[in-house]
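P.,

For your records, the input lines for the assembly:
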Amino acid sequence: MSSAPALQCDGVRVRFVSNRQSVTALDGVSLTVAAGSLLTVLGPSGCGKSTLLRVIADIVRPQSGEVRVLGTTAEAARRRRQIGFVFQDATLLPWRSVIDNVRLPLEVGARSALPPEARGPEELLRLVGLAGWERALPHELSGGMRQRVAIARALLGGPRILLMDEPFGAVDEITRDRLNEELLRIWRETGTTIVFVTHSIYEAAFLGTEVLVLAANPGRVREIIPIQLDGPRKLSARETPEFMRQAGHLRAVLETC
Amino acid sequence: MQSGQLAAGPRVAPAPDAAELAFITEQRNARRRRILLPLLGGATLLLVWWALVEILQVKQFIAPAPQVVARTVYDKFGLLMSNLAPTAVEAIGGFVLGNFAAIVTAAVFVHSRSVEQAFFPVAVLINSIPVVAKAPILVLLLGNGLAPKIAIAAIICYFPTLVNMVRGLQAVSPQAMELMHVLSASRREVFFKLRVPSSLPFLFSALKIATSTATVGAIVGEWIGSPTGIGALIIQATYNFDSALLYATVLCGSAFSVLFFLAIRAIELWVVRWETGVAP
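Structure tokens returned:
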């Protein structure tokens, strides 16, 4: 795709200081993500996966190192609404209907009008399979449906990078499988670069064009492993020997972290 | 999209089968029990009251029988209402003033930690003075009209609402704050789009408590040399050993308090529609 990488981290170091202890969440993290790719981030608990996403989204400022998002700083990219974020729980505002939750980005921040080529809230709800649910309140939806709403909200305005922090960690396995397939479809239809944090080796291998494996204490890059799967990524692809081999390799790398 | 979970929406209503009918019947019975049983409890209380007065031959100036109180409410309805009016004005006025002040203070506290640290202890201190002790001070300060009673009712409402409102405005999930940050929302937008709506369930639970405390404040205020009001009537009836009037007055005051509560509850149901029965 385009020549400039979507994302570039160079020697990123993040320390959290509290009065009991200080933790180095990320230490010397460097990586490059090409535009249009889907990077999954895998690693043991406490390896700084979520912190890495928060650094890219300009929620957490690194103590040292540089983050370039679409050729600018993370802050500039955030202010230009080029970053979408999907949290571990859907983080919908419970007093707003589904459609009003998706519209939230139009009501806050500097941006108030959608660019003409961007998809509107109704179209995004159709994209995530929730047409007809516009007026429902979040408590009327299942966990999986709430996460779809969160994805639609993150896609509003057509961000160039979508950051997802274990978005399907709290939904059941059957729903998670379906959402994985739909995420791949959405990724193909929108062409957005996605960074997807997960605990699941299978999810990482199934979704990712590349898997970033982080080691813990302090969080650092262990390895970046490209995933090659022949044919379209269907759920059944997870039963092929080739997929099993690559997942096995991921597990082996993960055990050294 | 042919996902099975989406088909089961809340909008589809097929004809009920036997099991569903049984469920509906059970629900209806449960609802009936919820209304009937408290009525039965109240009737039992009245019966025991009546029986005790009859059996023990209690003199009327010590404790009247329930039917005497009912008779008094009917006979002296005009007197009761003309005394309820000032009390209601004081309670509602104090309620509005006190809660408004509390909401504004909470908004300031949430925006400035230093103001909160400086003035929260002062608020706690004022709150720790008993109402009966505050009342004479305010009567001296504000004279003997409606003003001191409104002030007492306002002060008594103020503190619980302040505490709840500060809690409510801060009860925003860290992820929701991160979301607003990613969207580059201003502090003002975070306040009005996120903090205020999340605080509403907290606010209403404080307001419901404030309905009865504001009424208590107004009545206590009237105990100190007031010529009219439920509080004044209570004092007069007690000094005249007119216990039937005393009971009728108390009944009238609590009926007002209950109606006040129900009115706020109705507004809450209309405003806070997203909370499914889990008020904090």
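Two observations worth noting. The mean pLDDT of chain A is 90. The longest strand of chain A covers residues 22-33.

Regards
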